[in-house]
Design brief:
heterodimer; A: alpha/beta; Pyruvate Kinase, Chain: A, domain 1; 5 helices; about 60% helix; elongated; B: alpha+beta; ATP Synthase, domain 1; 5-stranded mixed sheet; 5-stranded antiparallel sheet; 2 helices; about 30% helix
Chain lengths: ~290, ~140
């Protein structure tokens, strides 16, 4: 049985760890709430945007527009959204697992693959890979990315698509369903209007001002960027909630460990006392003889 | 007709309105119920909303918007913009200071990217000041 002193030290160190994980849990919880509000607030915009894109995709002149052009897929750009920091449970490994699956699929279909990595964990991962071309790496995006940061990602994706370097652009991110439920998702953002949605908008004859081409141009880039923006926000909210849960589990485990160790320490202490008493009474016996 | 003003930060307005003035790439347009279906690009500017027929001018409400998309049908208007603010959201002194900063940025811009950004900022704060001004004038007792 370990000595009381050793056990005491261990208990103290586990308690320290518990304090840290507890603090991280609380921080993640408050960040999650904020990220959750942000992603919920943007949802109506994204939904309306997707609907509008779908309506536009039915226009004849759309096929002429470079952002809507559907081509046979010979190369594909993947935008992988992971986190900068670890300790978020399975968050990063889930994302990277589904990224690997997509890579394998591309490989078996003889599709060339390009990648944009968002978040340090994704960046470190793609740096080790050989079967993809890295188009860009973005680290340390703020919780609420603004238009400038988004534009950099959007521009490189759009330019690659228009120039014909890639024939499709997919975003791999973690969809935020609730604080206990998140799902890895692969979303096609280009060619625009690819994802089918329920139509509730207008379908009758519509006028486009100043001209169809100009409207298409403005609408398409704006709406594609809204989808990427939503993906970023969702990913962020998922990251924080997964971290919160991971840290809650860590805190609970630390509590259990402290309980076990305390029990063991008390046993050890009691054992030591009993032994000491036995020795004393043994000594007294010996003197009496 | 129903107006939905949707921003990246949430639904700003979802209500029945009678008249709308929207700044678009093809000039300012007025929208009344029964307007022909239209999709257009909104440019940074001021949206004026009249909620009921016969409302006087001082009951109009103004929104400063950034660029976006306008979708009009017979019974619905949907406006998607990055940002929309009412006179109540805008602090005039802050906007004035921000406009001055933006003008300075524009004067000192070294490359096209900085210049574009400065132009956007100038536009944005000019519009906000305009809304704040309209708000003040129309709401005076």
């Amino acid at each position: 049985m370990a000595s009381t002193q050793v056990l005491k030290t261990r208990i103290r160190s586990v308690k320290n760890t518990k304090q840290i994980t507890k603090a991280m849990q609380l921080v993640a919880a408050s960040k999650m709430r904020r990220a959750q509000d942000a992603t919920k607030a943007t949802a109506p915009y994204t939904e309306a945007a997707r609907e509008l894109l779908q309506n536009l995709a039915k226009l004849n002149s759309v096929t002429r527009h470079p952002l809507f052009k559907t081509r046979p897929i010979g190369s594909r750009l993947l935008i992988v959204i992971a986190s900068d920091k670890g300790l978020a449970g399975a968050y990063n490994s889930n994302i990277l697992k589904s990224y690997i699956e997509e890579l394998k699929r591309d490989d078996s279909a003889k599709v060339k693959n390009l990648t944009i990595a968002v978040g340090r964990k994704a960046a470190q991962f793609v740096a080790r890979l050989k079967d993809t071309t890295v188009l860009g790496v973005y680290e340390e995006l703020p919780d609420r990315p603004d238009a400038d940061e988004l534009r950099a990602i959007l521009d490189s994706a759009r330019n690659a698509f228009i120039a014909g370097r890639v024939d499709a652009v997919d975003v791999i991110y973690t969809e935020f369903i609730s604080s206990l439920n998140q799902k890895t998702k692969v979303l096609r953002v280009l060619p625009a209007g690819f994802n089918a949605v329920e139509l509730t908008g207008i379908t009758e004859e519509v006028t486009y001002e100043p001209s169809t081409d100009e409207v298409l141009d403005g609408v398409a880039s704006r709406l594609v960027s809204a989808q990427i923006f939503q993906a970023l926000l969702d990913a962020r909210a998922s990251e924080h909630s997964m971290r919160m849960i991971a840290m809650k589990n860590a805190t609970d485990n630390a509590s259990d460990l402290v309980d076990d160790l305390t029990l063991e320490m008390n046993k050890a202490r009691q054992g030591a006392i009993t032994q000491e008493l036995a020795e004393i009474s043994g000594g007294v016996e010996a003197l009496n003889e | 007709m129903n107006l939905k003003l949707i921003t990246l930060l949430g639904v700003k307005l979802d209500t029945e309105v009678y008249e709308l003035l929207i700044p678009t790439a093809a000039g300012e347009i007025g929208v009344f119920p029964g307007h022909e279906p239209l999709v257009s690009l909104a440019v940074p500017g001021v949206i004026a909303v009249r909620y009921k027929k016969g409302d006087s001018d001082d009951k109009q409400e103004f929104f400063a918007i950034s660029g976006g998309v306008v979708e009009v049908s017979q019974t619905h208007v949907r406006i998607l913009v990055d940002e929309a603010e009412t006179g109540d959201d805008i602090v005039e002194a802050e906007s004035k200071a921000a406009l001055e900063r933006a003008l300075k940025l524009r004067a000192e811009a070294k490359n096209q990217v900085e210049l574009d950004k400065a132009h956007q900022l100038v536009d944005r704060h000019t519009v906000r000041l305009k809304v704040a001004d309209l708000h003040r004038r129309h709401r005076r007792p």
